[in-house]
Design brief:
- By secondary structure, the protein is mostly helical.
- Helix content is 91%, strand content 0%.
- The longest helix has 83 residues.
- The radius of gyration is 35 Å and the shape is rod-shaped.
Length: 148
């Protein structure tokens, strides 16, 4: 019996490897985004602490040096938060780019898999045709031998 050999199997294998690489890149990009979001969250919590401290300093005995230092710390935290937000947005864009590449690679792989399935179905049909043809020849031969 004939064996099915897919001519583009090496291409399909490459597409599968590329997809695996893109999945790894996607997971790394997602981890990076998560890390950046956690850093932003820590900065927001730290800024909230400085805000509370600034309010307490204004309520009690006024110490201008401490109030000034606290305000400077709050402003510094605002700058750090803005910078961290930029990092979060950059990580989001990177994740989206990797997601698009992953989707493209997955579509290419699926296309080659569907082509392989189609070729296999054609192969099966050809085998069935050949088998039916052989059976018909055998029946014809047996019939002609009986009637001779």
């Amino acid at each position: 019996m004939a064996k099915f050999i897919y001519q583009l199997q090496s291409v399909l294998d490459i597409k599968q490897k590329l997809e695996e690489q893109e999945k790894i890149a996607f997971s790394l990009a997602a981890a990076k985004l998560n890390e950046e979001q956690e850093a932003l969250q820590r900065l927001l919590i730290q800024k909230a602490g400085y805000d509370r401290q600034a309010r307490k300093l204004v309520e009690g005995a006024i110490n201008l040096l401490e109030i000034g230092a606290c305000r400077k710390a709050v402003e510094t935290m605002k700058v750090r938060i803005r910078n961290q937000m930029l990092e979060v947005h950059k990580a989001e864009r990177q994740l989206e780019n990797v997601r698009k590449r992953l989707n493209e690679v997955m579509m290419e792989r699926k296309t080659y898999e569907k082509l392989k399935e189609k070729k296999f179905e054609e192969f099966k049909q050809e085998l069935l045709y050949e088998e039916n043809k052989e059976v018909d020849e055998l029946v014809s031969y047996a019939y002609s031998k009986r009637h001779e």
